[in-house]
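I have a small job for you when you get a moment. Would you make up a two-line entry for one protein for me to read? No commentary is needed, just the two lines. Write everything out right here, beneath this request.
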Amino acid sequence: MKKSQIILIVVVIVLVGIIYSLPRVVVDNAEESENIGQNDAVATDSVLQAHDARVSDGEKDAVSSLIAKLKIADSKEKFTIFADSLAGIYRKSGIYDSAAYYLGEAAAQYPTVDNMEKAGNAYYEAFGFAMSQEKMAVLAEETRSYLNKVLEDQPERLDLKTKVAMTHVSSTNPMQGIMMLREVLEEDPTNQEALFNMGVLSMQSGQYKRAVERFEELIGYYPENVQGQFYLGVSYLESNQKNKAKKQFQLVQDMTEDPMILSSVENYMGQL
């Protein structure tokens, strides 16, 4: 499989994960602590400048102002608000690792389940867009450090367990992640994320007939899942089921206006 196709797969995994990333629990605030921004929780100026340098010129004043406020925040609530605002700017700019960094700072200072989940989800998003194995490994570890803490409190959160599983798949012990996904499916056989990710993993390992089975099962439960429908077409094509692939790609063309998916469909249709 071409590198560009693998990148698209990773991006789609992240997009699917975003659907389930909204926090569902509100934890009562802990007692305030004075001068939160004046201790070691805020990184050195050189680190902050490295984040700031990657922001568009139109956002730099806002970022500088928020960083200044973060340093002198006199309560955990204010620290969290400023960190959330910074993360929002970076995420809007597509700088996902910086967004995760500030949400991680908020979680370190104000370790509620809600903040842990926000940080973990942000690091997972950054992990999905990382282009080097070294960076992926670092972001995967950060994802697990936060989301596993949420799972300790909420072990029923299969959406988070699926994300942790996917970080293991890219590690030196991928079977640990695959086993976790299987555990999710044992508990919830119709779990959308787990079915999708198992299909993607089958594709990445060249097991296209197995991928067909996974994606057929997925769209049987979730026919509106455009990404699943698309990758079913790819799996048909790669397993030499060209008539099914053509019909599947035509179905996808009728389902979406997403230019990335439609462009990929056109490329694959050209191979038929």
Summary: Residues 1-48 have pLDDT under 50 and may be disordered. The two ends are 17 Å apart (CA to CA). The chain is about 75% helix and 0% strand.
